[in-house]
Amino acid sequence: MDVACRQHNRISPPIQFPPRPPISLLSRISTSLFKNRRIRRRNHLCLASSSDTLVDGKTREVVSKKEDEFHDLKSWMHKNGLPPCKVVLQERPSHDEKHRPIRYVAASEDLQAGDVAFSVPNSLVVTLERVLGNETVAELLTTNKLSELACLALYLMYEKKQGKKSFWYPYIRELDRQRGRGQLAVESPLLWSKKELDYLTGSPTKAEVLERAEGIKREYGELDTVWFMAGSLFQQYPYDIPTEAFPFEIFKQAFVAVQSCVVHLQKVSLARRFTLVPLGPPLLAYRSNCKAMLTAVDGAVQLVVDRPYEAGDPIVVWCGPQPNSKLLLNYGFVDEDNAYDRLLIKAALNTEDPQYQDKRLVAQRNGKLSVQVFQVHAGKEKEAVSDMLPYLRLGYVSDPSEMQSVISSQGPICPVSPCMERAVLDQLVDYFKTRLAGYPTTLREDECLLSDSHLDPKKRVATQLVRLEKKMLSACLQVALDLISQLPDHTISPCPAPYAPILR
Fold first, then answer.
1. d(CA 331, CA 334)
2. Which of the 8 DSSP states describes residue 187?
């Protein structure tokens, strides 16, 4: 259920855009926009902090208990077609007193593996087909410039402008309550301050966050395309051009809120693939070792549990094979027992090597690329290093006769001398030490931080992430050092490597 902000770089056939409205209609729109521009600008700050936004993290949440009960999410769902189910909504305190408690879905009775916890009818889920009013338009938009998340966020922002008139008002209020926070009450790093992002110094996740933020900014610039192409939005909000109605920061907050709760359904049409499901995430907690998923059935989206629950237990679902960097970026949490956690190491053959083309062909013959990404999985660091060694050895071959021997061989094995092996392993050792040195804290310091029960939650999840990364890097470093210790002669000076492969 990886819902990362996709950048569509693939080549698509020319788009046949729907016909534009008549010139007279466009003229009326332009005139109205000109007349109302000052009014919109004057009320802009007010709108941005009240009815225009899906979430606004700077305002204090003040909602009366009566108002809260009147628009109870589950009651609203039952009133609009949700059949009897086996879950209830419960609350736990948020770490920030300015925020209301975190709600979560819990078992209302004892459950056994295979029980249907709930089944939400399609009339109560939000899909692109519903948003855009046309499955063809949905496919056009999401296979080119815009992600599903951008379209869904834009729709909910428009719906929120209608206030209680919107059918989705109770659901939007629930999303506002959550404010893009996962079940650990921590927002995605996309909403962290620059100072808070420094918690991730040394981790490649920090660069991922910045890259994703730039992607959201690019999508914001394309929102007017959604408004124009989607007939339903154009007719309902003919004067509310998205980039004028919503400032970027509000769109970003809404995008992150949607990102934290969107469900990736399998075996459905493109226009229904990304879905917002009341009673789904973030009310459901994610867990990497869970196999229960929200699935599309005839006319509904249902959840079949994969384990027994006692009444009152939080219900958990699988978040897909995502590493902790994605879990933090998308949902604001880190899973200490994540079997899918991994680090990436990029290796590249040296393009200045006179034998580069021959080495590239040998690498391809053995399933590798001239720029190859190796994955280090938690607990399988030895296997990762073993996978990298043949590729690195290939980069160290310098004698043309040896290269011919490699070309004529049928496997990835290169002629290896103790000298060459030491050079390869030394490069790995230096690489792992350099990456570890890029973190401002040590593993021991991380352990001390995490033992503090009053540690800021954002600092905690960031420390959990970098600690797990360091453990994988340290394990890889130890594997390389152990292999060096097994070489027959420790006095051998490493071989010269004028065209050694590049590690990043």
1. 9
2. B
Angle at 51 between CA 45 and CA 52, to 5 degrees: 65
Residue 342: phi, psi to the nearest 5?
Answer: -160, 160
Query: Cβ-count burial of 449 within 10 angstroms (0-12 exposed, 13-18 middle, 19+ buried)?
Result: middle
The Cα 412–Cα 363 span in angstroms is 8
Helix (H) or strand (E) holding 48: helix 23-49
Tokens encoding 161: 């402008």
Q: How far is Cα of residue 400 from the mean position of the Cα atoms in its chain?
A: 46
Query: 356-374 burial by CB neighbour count: b if 16+ within 10 A, else e?
Result: eebbbebbeeeebebebeb
The residues, ordered by sequence, that sit 6+ positions from 182 with a Cβ below 8 Å of its Cβ are 260, 282, 285, 286, 331, 332, 333
Q: What is the token pair recorded at 481?
A: 């050092």
User: What residue ranges define each of the domains in the chain, with the CATH number in brackets?
Assistant: 23-63+76-81+118-278+319-331 (3.90.1410), 342-503 (3.90.1420.10)
From CA 142, how far away is CA 6, in angstroms rounded?
A: 9
pTM: 0.81
Whole-angstrom distance, CA of residue 182 vs CA of residue 332: 6
**pLDDT at residue number 99:** 64
158-187 per-position pLDDT tens digit:
888 888 999 999 999 888 877 655 555 688
